Amino acid sequence: MKDPKLSVILITYNHEKYIEKALDSVLSQVTDFPFEIVIGDDCSPDDTKNIIREYRDKYPDIIRIVHREKNTGRPTLNVYETTMKCRGDYLAYLEGDDYWTDSDKLQKQMDFLNEHPEYIACTHSHKMIDDNGNDITDPEILKISDMYKWSGEFTMDDFEKSGFWPGHYASVVSKNIYKNKKHDYTILYKSHDFVDDGQILLFLLMEGKIYRLDDEMSVWRYVKKAGGNSWTSRSMKRNIQKEDILMSMELMKWLEKEYSLRDYAKIKAKKDFETALYLYSSSPSKENWQTVREIFEYNIKHVVMEDKKVSLIPYCIKCVKDKFTKY
Question: pLDDT tens across 212-241, in order?
Fold first, then answer.
């Protein structure tokens, strides 16, 4: 295939149980435009690599594989490198343990974007299942999906202030903004080893608005268990709060350089510093204190105080006093 209109970015690692369903859901798409599937396999030790090779051999005009000789240990680097190999003017995203449920999904989203050029991307509703393919009914787990309960237009203001996201990773179809090389997109993997969907949405919102359809057209396989290989399972070993504020700081630095910092940046910077201070007070250690210092240097001294003179300890005391005053 010389000129695919759309590239499907399929990211996989240790998905031998699920990858066929994911691939079949893409290959079943009925479209009036050509598309390719670019598979980024992060050197899976299970049978994933053999399965995707069989599919590639069967559909050589559609499927390309980005091979690696060794595991990067960084899923976001896999996403970045695979994305950079895509040739389409549009991109669709899918992880190897998720899948699509509507054979017209891509066509519907492409039709919308063609009819509404003011939007940079289109997403849709999804449902959640467990490791065995059963619908998730646990209300505590379903609450996680609430962050995607949005309908209609989604803007940068919504991204900053609403607490919602415009769509799950497997629901996104967007214009291929990476082709114009307008920004340094390596921040996608430099800011965090595992989290990439927030960065991708941020990149898109810098270029335009996103629209979320109400159609349910994908499945999010939510697997969280000790020793599991899903991103969710692997997150159990990490300090999510700490990683989030450090990632947020790196993204803020990137935004300041590549785009601009909006008014909300000061609010976010202060909240993240307060989180760092809380983490240290909950678990005092040299490592957590170093995080406080690091966040203070950029978030407070630069973003909040605009490089005016301010000292760490007095500012920490002020934060604690302000906290108690509220109550």
Answer: 999 999 999 998 654 445 445 444 445 789
| Kind plus residue range of the DSSP H or E element containing 7 | strand 6-12
For 40, the token pair is: 């980024």
String of DSSP letters for 43-107: --SSTHHHHHHHHHHHSTTTEEEE--SS--S-HHHHHHHHHHT--SSEEEEEETT-EE--TTHHH
Give the separation between CA 23 and CA 41, rounded to whole angstroms. 13
Separation between Cα atoms, residue 11 and residue 186, nearest integer Å: 17
Is residue 111 within a helix (H) or strand (E), and if so which, with residue range?
helix 105-115
DSSP string for 228-254: --SHHHHGGGS-HHHHHHHHHHHHHHH
Question: For residues 207 and 174, is the Cβ–Cβ distance under 8 A?
Answer: no
Q: Is the dihedral of CA 75, 77, 82, 88 positive or negative?
A: positive
Calculate the average pLDDT of the chain: 92
